[in-house]
Structure to design on (205 residues):
């Protein structure tokens, strides 16, 4: 099993009670993962809220970067202490394009061996691959892939039915020895995707 952390996870929330609740959620989840021998937790970065001004959007995590990074350091420390020597990885997934402050936070988290990267190839496709260079520069920290096809702004499509260069993406996953989840939404789509993997000699054991 792999475990997907709450998509609203926000350990940097400006309300300390909310931030602490999310920290405790991660701590408990790491403990559960250890008991069931789940190799990884998957997480999204939370970009926080922004205020729209007449000429721009102001992201509060960017505006209060000192406080934001202090919370990131606290989170890294908690995860390293809780995971210990279990070998569990917390994999940070790309979604709709990282903000600059999120990239700084990811670099900070990757200073701990507990953290690694998830490459969701469908998310990459729908945001014009804006995170690809960032991920490839940290290729040695890729640990997990979410595999699905994409068509225009649609992702989670059956493998072989969209526009993504699946051979290229899956070859990177294979080269890096990554775990992969075929992330489709129906049983039929999963079965057809497994069929595509067999036909194209991409089988992960």
């Amino acid at each position: 099993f792999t475990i997907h952390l709450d998509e609203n996870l926000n350990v940097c929330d400006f309300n300390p009670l909310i931030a602490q609740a999310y920290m405790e959620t991660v701590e408990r989840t790491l403990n559960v993962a250890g008991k069931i021998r789940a190799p990884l937790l998957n997480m999204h970065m939370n970009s926080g809220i922004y205020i729209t001004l007449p000429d721009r959007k102001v992201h509060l995590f960017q505006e209060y970067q000192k406080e934001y990074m202090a919370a990131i350091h606290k989170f890294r420390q908690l995860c390293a202490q809780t995971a210990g020597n279990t070998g569990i990885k917390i994999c940070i997934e790309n979604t709709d394009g990282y903000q600059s402050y999120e990239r700084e936070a990811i670099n900070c988290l990757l200073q701990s061996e507990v953290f690694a990267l998830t490459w969701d190839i469908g998310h990459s496709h729908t945001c014009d691959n804006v995170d690809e260079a960032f991920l490839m520069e940290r290729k040695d920290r890729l640990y997990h892939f979410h595999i699905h096809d994409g068509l225009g702004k649609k992702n989670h499509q059956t493998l072989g039915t969209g526009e993504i260069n699946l051979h290229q993406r899956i070859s990177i996953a294979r080269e890096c020895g990554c775990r992969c989840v075929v992330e489709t939404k129906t049983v039929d789509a999963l079965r057809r995707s497994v069929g595509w993997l067999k036909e194209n000699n991409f089988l992960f054991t």
DSSP finds eight helices and ten strands in the chain. The mean pLDDT is 95. Helices lie at 16-36, 60-63, 65-83, 100-109, 121-126, 132-136, 166-175, 187-199. The two ends are 14 Å apart (CA to CA).
